[in-house]
Amino acid sequence: MSTYFKNKRIWITGASSGIGEALALAFAEHGAHLVLSARNEKELQRVAEDAANAGAASVLVQVLDLGKHDEIPVIAQKVLQKVGNVDVLINNGGISQRALALDTSLEVDKKLMNVNYFGTVALTKAVLPSMLTHHLGHIVTITSLTGKFGSPLRSSYAASKHALHGFFDSLRAELGNTPLQITLVCPGYVRTNVSINALVGDGSAQGTMDDATDKGMAPEDLARKILGAIESGKEELWVGGKEVLGVYLKRLFPAYFSKIIRKAKVT
C-alpha cells in the first residue's frame, strides 16, 4: 500500500454519507489525519468512529453548512487552528436536482448555486491562504459529468457544476507558479442517496432512488480512483459507465450528442 497519504491532513466536506464517507474510510486506511464535515453531526460521528477503526491517524468532526457562507471563514480558521494546515481539501458536499427547468422555482435554482458553487468557493477561499503560506496543498473538487455537459432534469445542478469547472480551471492557472495542485473529479452515476435527497421543483426532496443511480458504481470504487488521481497529480478525472462517452460525443459530435441526450434515461 502506498504511504503517500500517511499523516496528511485531509478535510472532506459531505463526509456523512456516500462518496464523502467512502473517501474518509479510504484515506483512513492510509493513515491520514481527517477532518470530516457535513450538516448531520450524528452521521459524521458514525463515520468518524468507522474511520478511526479503519486506521485514521486522527479524526476531527466539524459541522459545516455550505449554504451558510458567512460562517465558513470562521469555521475554517477554527479547523486550521486545530490541525495546523490542510494538505488536501476535498470539496465534496452538495445537492442534486430532479426537475424540469420550467418547473423549478428560482429559489431552488439559487439554493443549488449557493450550496454547490458559492459554498465550495467560500471554503476554498478560506483555506487557500494557509496553503499558500505553507507552500503546499491539493484542492480536489467533486463535480460531475454534468459539469462537462447538461442533461434533462439537471439544469441548475449542471449549471452549478459547470461553474465549478470555470472557477477551478481559472484558479489552477492563477496558481501555476506555486506548488499547489487542483484536481476536478467528474463522476457519472454512483450508488449513493444523491437521487433520494435531490430537490424537485418546489424544493422538496425527491425521496426515491433513481434506477440509473441504483445501478451506478460503488462509492468505494470511486474513492479508490480518486485517491489514485490525487497521488498522480491528475488535473481532471472522468469516471463512470457508458455515460462517460458523453464527454467525447459532446466534444467531437455536438449535433449528434444533442439528439441523443434528449432521449437519454437520466433517472
Categorize the overall geometry.
Answer: globular
The structure class reads: alpha/beta
> Please, what is the CATH homologous superfamily?
NAD(P)-binding Rossmann-like Domain
> What is the fold named in CATH at topology level?
Rossmann fold
CATH class: Alpha Beta
Largest sheet: 7 strands, parallel
CATH architecture: 3-Layer(aba) Sandwich
**Helical run tally:** 10
Strand fraction band?
5-15%
Q: How would you state the average pLDDT, rounded?
A: 96
Question: Unreliable runs, pLDDT <50, ≥5 residues?
Answer: none
Side-by-side strand order of the widest sheet: 3-2-1-4-5-6-7
Elements, N to C (H/E)? EHEHEHEHEHEHHHEHH
Radius of gyration: 18 Å
Distance between the termini: 37 Å
Number of domains: 1
Portion of residues in helices?
40-55%
Number of strands: 7
